[in-house]
Amino acid sequence: MPRGVPNKRYTPEFKQQVIETMLREKLSYSETESRFDVYRKRITDWERVYLSYGVEGFYTERRGRCGTGRPPKLEKQVEEDLIAENQRLRAENEYLKNLQALVLEDERKARKNR
């Protein structure tokens, strides 16, 4: 009979029991594997989580990719405000560029007339 069940989801309480028993009784991975009928890789992963995050680590879902790729959606009003502000700033930037060009042109004319 094969060990463990593929894609089986173990409860956090079971994971805690496996790791605490292993640590308390100083069992090897092989002994723990045969006692609880769980693959060694899972035991090592659970031990890493337990040592890093404690018991609370078993209650946190960590499957899949990290969610840092896509920024969270903004509220519609906030998004509209940001778009309006961006348009206003672009217009202001364009106005300042034109103003600077006019000032430089006036300075050139003033130098030329001297």
List the helices and strands and how they pair.
Layout: H1 12-24, H2 29-36, H3 40-53, H4 76-113
Helix pairs in contact: 1-3
Description:
By secondary structure, the chain is mostly helical. It has two domains: 48 residues; 38 residues. Helix content is 64%, strand content 0%. α1 crosses α3. It is rod-shaped and about 100 Å long. 10% of the residues are buried. The mean pLDDT is 88.
> Which range best describes the helical content: under 10%, 10-25%, 25-40%, 40-55%, 55-70% or over 70%?
55-70%
Give the amount of beta strand, in percent. Answer: under 5%
Structural class assignment: mainly alpha
What value does the average pLDDT take? Answer: 88
Order of helices and strands: HHHH
- Overall tally of domains: 2
Poorly predicted tracts of residues: none
Record keyword descriptors for this entry:
4 helices; 114 residues; 2 domains; mainly alpha
Give a short synopsis of this structure.
Helices cover 64% and strands 0% of the residues. The chain is built from 4 helices and no strands.
